[in-house]
Amino acid sequence: MDRPVGVAHFSGPLQPHGDGAFTVAVGGIAVRFEGLSEELKAAALDRYRPFLSEDPPIHTAIVFEGPMDYLDMAEDKFLRLEEREFPEGRMLVSHVFAALRPPADGKGLLRVSSEQPQRNAIGAIENYLRWVVADLALDCGGFVLHAAGLAKDGKAYLLFGHSGAGKSTATEISLRETPGVLPLSDDLVLVLRQGERFVAATTPFWGSLPQQVKERGLYPLAGAYRLRQSPSVQVREIPLALAAGMILSCCPFVADPARRADTLAPLIEEFCRCVSVKELYFCKDPSFWEAIAPEEVPA
Amino acid sequence: MSNPSCPKRNPDVSWRSIEGQAVLIHNRLGEIQVLNELGTYIWENLDTEPLSLARNIAERYEVSQDEAERDLLEFVETLRASGALADDEG
Predict the structure, then answer these.
(1) Quick check: A170 and A288 in contact, CB under 8 A?
(2) Within 13 A of A261's CA, how many CA atoms are on the CB side?
(3) Contact residues, chain A, for B37 at CB < 8 Å
(4) Using a CB cutoff of 8 Å and minimum separation of 24, what contacts does B80-83 make?
(5) Residue A9 has what DSSP assignment?
(6) What is the pTM of this model?
(7) Helix (H) and strand (E) counts for chain B?
(8) What CA–CA distance (Å, rounded) separates A36 from A62?
(9) What separation in angstroms does the CA of A141 have from each of A103, A195, A199, A270?
(10) Spatial CA neighbour of A210 closest among A170, A250, A172
(11) How confident is the model at residue A299 (pLDDT cuts 50, 70, 90)?
């Protein structure tokens, strides 16, 4: 049975895992984690190496001791992440962790048991990071998109869609078979406004591909493509409203209705007016590059 | 169509019109719905008394009153099924 978790779960004396800390920056959004044990800190430094930062953090979270179990595992074994709203802040709960993010500038509180296997504790940090970066991005005039991000010849291409759309497949094929392609992510890409244009940032977030060493980078966007698996490659135009709807439906972690309607939706409309958004029917080979970037493919 | 009342938009659904198409944002579900031109016209005019709205649709799209009423009822049911409308009660 799911453990009932309310705001009271984060009050009273809480025990940090240790005094280790690190700061990770995603597209200039710096988030600091404190309260780590030496082992957890070492694992985090290893995982986030290209993204470690000395910048002053926009947000800080403290990692505290917590119980072993929160939510029950879903029958399909997929990760359950539940977001809840309280006057005292927003909460994110999963199988192994619970986090509270107070409003305004308060420090985030992340509870996970030190008895958990290290990969679960790192997973808690990773999910917390995804959650706050998606929210902080909006404050910076940007958003996080469920997309594979690939850079080629200095420009970024976003291949977006829900789980199973083919983001990891397209990333894997491109990295293996298309020279000069750099990965931004195969799961979550940060999009930021930069003057009159939009750029995509490399993120430390990976989907089903193994973690690899990436280099931080910001690339002007050449296009965004809603992935559709198909026996043949084709790019199709879509109306602006549909493009905006498709992008909006792939923006995770913006649960606040007002933020979604008043901040995210107008931003996405603007994005769709600035950046070419189309549907890409693709099959499991790198030929889709000829359809989305013909000028970049050698004859 | 016998004296029907105006359906009400679900207050949990935010929306914006982009180039003549309504994009509905279901805030609780996190789902997005994009309406076509006729759907957008109906959505934007839900406050209009249904028989008048059907008459306006018939004129605008050059279809019979019967056809307009059928389209309107069908679309309202689609909206209701998707959760875009408030419950009738109250």
Answers:
(1) yes
(2) 17
(3) none
(4) B80/B7, B82/B26, B82/B33, B83/B10, B83/B12, B83/B13, B83/B26, B83/B29
(5) G
(6) 0.86
(7) 3, 3
(8) 8
(9) 19, 10, 11, 11
(10) A172
(11) very low
**Residue A262: its chain B contacts at CB < 8 A?**
14
Q: How far is CA A216 from CA A74, A186, A280, in A?
A: 34, 15, 27
Q: For residue A264, give the chain B residue with the closest CA.
A: B25
Within 8 A of B33 by CB-CB distance, chain A residues are: 245
Residue B13: both structure tokens together: 């659904």
Total residues found in chain B within this entry: 90
pLDDT grade for B89, boundaries at 50, 70 and 90 = very low
Q: For residues B53 and B59, is the Cβ–Cβ distance under 8 A? A: no
The CA distance from A84 to A23, in Å, is: 26
Across the interface, which of B19, B21, B27 has its CB nearest the CB of A260?
A: B27
Q: Which of the four pLDDT bands, split at 50, 70 and 90, describes residue A84? A: confident
Question: B53: which residues sit within 8 A by CB, 6+ positions away?
Answer: B42, B45, B46, B72
Query: Looking at this protein, which amino acid is placed at residue A128?
Result: Y
Nearest C-alpha neighbor of A119 from the set A47, A37, A11: A47
* A250 Cβ contact list (under 8 Å, min separation 6): A145, A146, A147, A160, A161, A162
Give this complex's ipTM. Answer: 0.71
Whether residues B18 and A240 touch (CB distance < 8 A) is answered with yes
The model's pLDDT over B14-38, given as tens digits with 9 standing for 90+, comes to: 888 898 899 998 877 777 889 999 9
